[in-house]
Amino acid sequence: MPEVKLFKPTDVEQNYNHRGTSWHEFVNEKDDSPLASGTTYLRDSDFEWTLWYDEMICIDPGQLLEVTVDGRAYSLARGECIGSPTVPSRGIGPPALL
Fold first, then answer.
1. 3-class DSSP state for residue 17?
2. Which end of the chain has the smaller Cβ count within 10 Å, N or C?
3. In which band, very low, low, confident or very high, does the pLDDT at 97 lie, cut at 50, 70 and 90?
4. Pfam families from the entry (predicted)?
């Protein structure tokens, strides 16, 4: 039987790169899981990426984020989530930076 894993924000050491992101993967194929899971912390960051899988984005309370998918912007506020199917281009960052 697979082991249950508990992840707490206090267990994550945030190490930001030059783009203002700190990525932490919790579950992936090494865990024999069909689903990957992780968290990304953003600080004054904006970037574009190509996504080859479906994704769920949840916003930590007190944060603001804007996700752009195929040219359409979606603003997310504290506690909100967005589910995004695989699409060729998107951007992510605070609304003022996109």
1. coil
2. N
3. very low
4. EutQ (PF06249)
15-41: pLDDT as tens digits: 988 888 888 888 888 888 887 788 888
65 beta partners: 76
For residue 53, which of 4, 16, 86 has the smallest C-alpha distance? 86
Which strand (E) or helix (H) includes residue 31? none
d(CA 80, CA 98): 19
pTM of the full predicted structure? Answer: 0.59
Domains detected in the chain: 15-97 (2.60.120.10)
